[in-house]
Request: fold
Amino acid sequence: MDIALVVPSYATFTGNAASARRILTGLVREGHEGRIVDYETFGPYVPAILSAWEPAIVHAFHARRGAWPIRQHQPLVVSLTGTDTADDLARPDTRGEILEACRAARALVVHAAGAAAPVLALDPSLAPRVRVVPKGVDLPAGPAWSLRKTLSIPDGRTVFLLPAGLREVKGQIDAIEALDGLDVDLVLAGPELDPEYAARVRAAAAGRPWVRFIDIRPLSRMRGAYADADVVLNTSRHEGLSNAILEAMLSAKPVLASDIPANRAVVRPGSTGLLYTGHEGLRAAALRLRDDPGARALMGAAGAIRARAEHDPAAEIRALLEVYREAIESRPGSA
Reply:
């Protein structure tokens, strides 16, 4: 089977790019052919590329930025990834594009049963197209790399790692303000996706030497970043099922995450990490994890067990291939 994986951007580190890389690796391992096509590289030529190529399946990540411009290409599978069902669906100027893309899709892929609820609230007729595919998790292999050595952080310091592109929905400023004065290091790992917000993050970090920034390219560096972290943070205001949370769990690290539906679906409070609400909730939870290395170790171990048991990349590929086959069979004129 020849599969096109269409993402808004690929060279820039984003969750969609990480998912597309993982899925492409799994598809090739299973003997299929696939390519990643991204708008960041090919821009308005993406529809023409697909027309010339004619893959068996077009799988787009993000309903508006990935699927809407190519909604005429069939059979189309759309992954609902987070901002499309939150920010974009809430805005009158983009809501129509989200719904058009979903109506054009043969299948809508989500990673948790409730993730499609905002779309279904506006168009219940789309419910039969929703397919729940448990997200897989892996970490790219690469040369050994140490976050602590790179940033000259002593072994005794508690490190909170926040892997996310710098944009307002990810809440990096919330993390800086909540952790201020706790005598920990906060490492922000991600590209500047929103230059205006990134400038505000750097302004908030000014005069706070315990706030560090790292470039996580190549992605294989993330293995070393997780290994050297004590706690992995997710301060998103809304989110799809976070790759970073699953990667942290796979790396046996406790997760401290905002109490939003997607995070609630994967973080078990007191078992694999903690969930928080608001500034004081984040600060209190951070203090608890800072002061209890035993709890951190137990939560990390429990998270690793859950990640391996429930987020197997091979199982994700098997489920996606079934979705692809179903989409092909439902194509008008197919046998």
Notes: The CA atoms of residues 249 and 303 lie 4 Å apart. The chain has two domains: 2-136+312-329, 147-310. Residues 293-310 form the longest helix (18 residues). The radius of gyration is 20 Å.
